[in-house]
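Hi there, hope your week has been kind to you so far. Do you reckon you could talk me through the fold, stretch by stretch? I've dropped the whole record in just underneath, so have a look:
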Amino acid sequence: MKPGDLVKRKKAESGHEGDLGLFIGFRKSQNYEYAEVMWFEHSAPSGDRVSSCQISLLEVVNEKR
């Protein structure tokens, strides 16, 4: 996963499963690394367009067909 990739949320308790977003980059807080994503279809709980997400819950969308 690299900045600028189109990503899809694999699963979510929030009902946002399958949502698409733009991967911004990785962030680290102490020993925990997470992804920052700008979601197209919703905002983060804070109201921001960019939110953090567990890396394992994302997959890169392959546009080669």
Residues 6-60 form one domain.
